[in-house]
């Protein structure tokens, strides 16, 4: 029997003004990033509340990454500063509950950083792949 | 035994009612048993003398009740606040949840509240009455002729063993001392968990959280949870009132509950007290408090009115989310 290769499902929340544009630039420049990465565009990184992250895991994500403008560059001035605190606390709590800390990440990617976007996604996908399937935050009812 | 007696509180309430300072009194009254004290609203002397109770089982934090009661009652409400209750009181004022003008707060000293489960562990079931007025607690069960004498210090609730402060941070009038902030070992349990491996932590929480029956008592009792419409009541949220379908929902409920009060939780311990399943919810709250203290500087919710909680604040050089793990064992 052939063992199917594990392909992680990755959800990337990208803010409209920087990171989503960064992803666009990566595309325009013909830079690859793994096909497992599914991008969800949000108005600002601080739009993402902890429930979004948990929901993504529930619906089958193996890793969740949140990308926003670099601190200081948020389109709404301070949104990503709140994101930074919020996610630091959330990630620490997930770790406290015994959930692998490599499954979540925050990266700042500007609209000019197509190459960074591609590199970040490639690296994150590889990390999550090495971790294997998300078992600790899975919802069996959502399994296909 | 409490420093201020039940009689003194009743007399105080009666005199404040009589001179018109207040029009009603928020107090404790006996429930089904001597130890399941419940909150009650008194409006006249007779009912106060008959029903008002103050003893080692008056754990209920009244601050939250003020949100609803100040809207209903004409005139001022008298409320008795233990030191830890005053923090919740301030926190609610910070969030503009009730009108300070409509409350007359009397600070009362607290010697710590008893945990009925600990009493039962010593005396067994079938408790018919408990007298907290003597040096020791006299527990009468239906099986014994004479009451069992229990040392109050041996049945102290967890939150009172780790009491963070005996200081009243808000009051109109004090009965007894203002009190002091005290050193407590309240983060020790959290640190112990942090020192475990992720697998051990996962197993620990799996064991604890799988007992949750989603009664929502932890949310209902919490003085920080005062939203009129809670996310857990929203049928569209997928996490509305219902028992958790699986371990994901358990974790989601608990992460979100704790997160919603992060930075606003005063560590009053009501959530753990009311949990019928004895889930150590305070560990989740304290984890957030400990992390915020370490990452963003010491902060005590409710210590003063108007202070800005860490999660609605920032500095431009905060640490990055990935950096919260720096210096911690990277055993993951
Ligand atoms: S009080 Fe306890 S059992 Fe009830 S919802 Fe909260 S944690 Fe679950
Ligand atoms: S979360 Fe628990 S300890 Fe914190 S304020 Fe609410 S009831 Fe009190
Ligand atoms: S708009 Fe990009 S982080 Fe706020």
How would you describe what is shown here?
The complex is a heterodimer of chains A (about 140) and B (about 325). By secondary structure, chain A is an alpha/beta fold. Chain A has a single domain (about 10-135), classed as Rossmann fold, CATH 3.40.50. Helix content of chain A is about 40%, strand content about 15%. Chain A contains four helices and four strands, in the order E-H-E-H-E-H-E-H. Chain A has a four-stranded parallel beta sheet with strand order 2-1-3-4, with helices on both faces. In chain A, helix 1 crosses helix 4. The longest helix of chain A is centred in the middle third of the chain and has 18 residues, at about 80-95. The model of chain A has no long low-confidence stretch (mean pLDDT about 95). Chain B has about 325 residues and is α/β, with parallel strands linked by helices. Chain B has three domains: about 5-115 and about 160-175, no CATH class; about 115-155, no CATH class; about 190-325, no CATH class. Helices cover about 35% and strands about 10% of the residues of chain B. In chain B, strands 1, 2, 3, 4, 5 and 9 form a six-stranded mixed beta sheet that branches. Chain B has a three-stranded antiparallel beta sheet with strand order 6-7-8, covered by helices on one side. In chain B, helix 10 crosses helix 12. Chain B is globular. Classes of the chains: A alpha/beta (about 140), B alpha/beta (about 325). The interface between A and B is large, with 38 and 46 residues. Bound molecules: iron/sulfur cluster (2 copies) and FE2/S2 (inorganic) cluster (FES).
């Amino acid at each position: 029997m052939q063992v199917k290769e594990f392909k992680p499902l990755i959800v990337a929340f990208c803010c409209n003004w920087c990171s989503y544009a960064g992803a666009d630039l990566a595309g325009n420049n013909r830079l690859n990033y793994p096909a497992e990465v599914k991008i969800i565009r949000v108005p600002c990184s601080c739009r993402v509340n902890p429930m979004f992250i948990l929901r993504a895991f529930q619906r089958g994500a193996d890793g969740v990454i949140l990308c926003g403008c670099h601190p200081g560059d948020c389109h709404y001035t301070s949104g990503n500063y709140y994101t930074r605190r919020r996610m630091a606390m959330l990630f620490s709590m997930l770790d406290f509950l015994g959930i692998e800390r490599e499954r979540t990440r925050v990266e700042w990617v500007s609209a000019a950083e197509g190459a960074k976007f591609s590199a970040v996604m490639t690296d994150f996908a590889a990390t999550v792949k090495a971790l294997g399937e998300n078992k600790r935050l899975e919802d069996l009812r959502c399994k296909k | 035994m409490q420093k201020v007696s039940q009689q003194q509180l009743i007399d105080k309430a009666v005199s404040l009612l009589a001179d018109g300072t207040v029009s009603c009194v928020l107090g404790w009254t006996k429930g089904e048993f001597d130890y399941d004290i419940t909150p009650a609203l008194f409006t006249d002397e007779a009912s106060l003398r008959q029903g008002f109770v103050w003893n080692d089982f008056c754990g209920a934090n009244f601050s939250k009740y003020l949100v609803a009661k100040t809207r209903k009652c004409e005139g001022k409400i008298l409320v008795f606040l233990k030191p830890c209750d005053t923090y919740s009181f301030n926190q609610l004022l910070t969030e503009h949840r009730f009108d300070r003008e409509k409350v007359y707060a009397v600070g009362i000293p607290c010697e710590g509240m008893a945990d009925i489960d600990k009493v039962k562990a010593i005396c067994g079931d079938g408790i018919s009455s408990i007298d907290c007025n003597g040096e020791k607690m006299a527990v009468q069960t239906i099986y014994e002729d004479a009451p069992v004498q229990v040392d109050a210090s041996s049945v102290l609730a967890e939150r009172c063993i780790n009491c963070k402060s005996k200081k009243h941070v808000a009051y109109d009038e004090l009965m007894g001392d203002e009190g002091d902030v005290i050193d407590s070992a309240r983060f020790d349990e959290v640190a112990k968990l942090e020192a475990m491996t992720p697998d051990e932590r996962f197993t620990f929480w799996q064991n604890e959280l799988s007992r949750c029956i989603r009664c929502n008592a932890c949310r209902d009792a919490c003085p920080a949870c005062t939203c009129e419409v809670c996310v857990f009541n929203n049928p569209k949220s997928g996490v509305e009132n219902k028992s958790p379908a699986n371990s994901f929902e358990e974790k989601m409920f608990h992460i979100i509950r704790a997160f919603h009060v992060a930075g606003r939780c005063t560590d009053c311990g009501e959530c753990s007290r009311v949990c019928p399943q004895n889930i150590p919810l305070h560990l989740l709250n304290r984890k957030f408090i400990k992390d915020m203290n370490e990452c963003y500087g010491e902060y005590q919710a409710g210590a003063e009115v108007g202070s800005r909680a860490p999660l609605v604040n920032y500095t431009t050089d905060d640490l990055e989310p990935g950096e919260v793990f720096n210096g911690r064992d990277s055993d993951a």
